[in-house]
Amino acid sequence: MSSKAPPSQTTVPTPAPSARSLPAAEYDFFKVVQGYLDQAAKVINLAPHVATILSQPKNEIIVNFPVKMDNGEVRLFKGYRVQHNNLLGPFKGGIRYAAMVTLDEVKALATMMTWKGSLMGLPYGGGKGGIKFDPRSVSPGELQRITRRFTHALGENIGPEYDIPAPDMGTNSQTMAWMMDTYSNMVGSNQKQSVKGVVTGKPVASGGTLGRTKATGQGMVHCLTEWAKDRGFSLEGSTMIVQGFGNVGSHFGVLLSKLGVSTIAVGDHSGYLYNPEGFNAHKLQDYVAQHGSIGGYPGGKSISREEFWAMKCDICAPSALENQIGASEAQAIQAKVIVEGANGPTTPEGERVLLERGVDILPDVLANSGGVTVSYYEWVQNKRSESWSLEEVDERLEKAMKRVYRDVDNFSRQHKVDRRIASYALALQRIESVYKEREIFP
Ligand code: NAD
Question: Is 175 in the pocket of ligand 1 (CB under 6 A)?
Answer without folding.
Answer: no
